[in-house]
Amino acid sequence: MTTAGDIMHRGVQWIPAHETLDRAAELMRELNVGALPISDENERLCGILTDRDIVVGCVALGHDPARVTAGEMAKGTPRWIDADADVSEVLREMREHQIRRLPVIQDKRLVGMISESDLARRLADDQIASFAEGVYARNTTTA
């Protein structure tokens, strides 16, 4: 059985919710990543901040990234997966919520992150195809 812990990228760092977006961008550059999990004061996941969030949700709106915090950008319920979860659960979670990055938690601590590139390196072609179809499929229901 392949688990989330087997395919995740280790060495992930939090960005505290009180930290500014300019600092988040610097940390992304230092770590060579496009997303950071956001932690509250108890080091619990309260969101994920992406480079796109900084550009589209802050800079493009004329806001100063030195004055906007990561916590202000956190929206919705953050999704995560336990390190011992089977890869089928990882794929289901990512497909169901149409997300491209999934934090991995073990004993209430952040231990890694699963991204599309992690999936591409570790999964069979049919699993990757199923993931891509689920995450990138357009909603075909009408209101």
User: Strand tally, please?
Assistant: 6
- Proportion of beta-strand residues: 15-25%
Q: Give the overall pLDDT as a whole number.
A: 90
Largest sheet: spatial strand order: 1-2-3
User: In angstroms, what is the radius of gyration?
Assistant: 16 Å
Our count of helices gives: 7
Main sheet summary: 3 strands, mixed
Order of helices and strands: HEHEEHHEHEEHH
Helicity range of the residues? 25-40%
The first-to-last residue Cα distance is 40 Å
Residue runs with pLDDT of under 50 for 5 or more positions? none
Which class best fits the helix and strand makeup?
Answer: alpha/beta
Overall shape: globular
Brief synopsis:
The chain has 143 residues and is of the alpha/beta class. It contains seven helices and six strands; from the N terminus they run H-E-H-E-E-H-H-E-H-E-E-H-H. Strand 4 (81-82), helix 5 (87-96) and strand 5 (101-106) form a beta-alpha-beta unit.
Task: Give structural notes.
By secondary structure, this protein is an alpha/beta fold. 38% of the residues lie in helices and 20% in strands. The protein has helices at residues 4-7, 21-31, 51-57, 70-73, 87-96, 116-122, 125-136, and strands at 15-16, 35-39, 45-50, 81-82, 101-106, 109-115. It has a 3-stranded mixed sheet. Helix 5 links the parallel strand 4 (81-82) and strand 5 (101-106). Helix 5 (87-96) packs parallel to helix 7 (125-136). The model has no long low-confidence stretch (mean pLDDT 90).
Secondary structure elements and pairings:
Layout lengths: L3 H4 L7 E2 L4 H11 L3 E5 L5 E6 H7 L12 H4 L7 E2 L4 H10 L4 E6 L2 E7 H7 L2 H12 L7
Parallel strand pairs: 1-2, 4-5
Antiparallel strand pairs: 2-3, 5-6
Helix pairs in contact: 5-7
